[in-house]
Amino acid sequence: MRGLQTDRTAQVVIAGHALVRNLRRGHYELGNDAMPALRVDAAFTELAQAI
Q1: Which domain holds residue 38?
Q2: How many structural domains compose the chain?
Q3: What pTM, to 2 d.p., does this model score?
Q4: What string of pLDDT tens digits covers the 51 residues of the chain?
């Protein structure tokens, strides 16, 4: 792997990481009705249906 080539790439990766961490912790309404172990999967399913 060549790593992050630009600051923009690093910014996108960091933002994505923060989103997933916050989903797992239940900070968003997405996936809150699912079990904690399945919360991220449920949240992405809800997002896919919305799009």
Answers
A1: 7-50
A2: 1
A3: 0.71
A4: 678 899 999 999 999 999 999 988 888 888 888 888 888 898 899 889 888
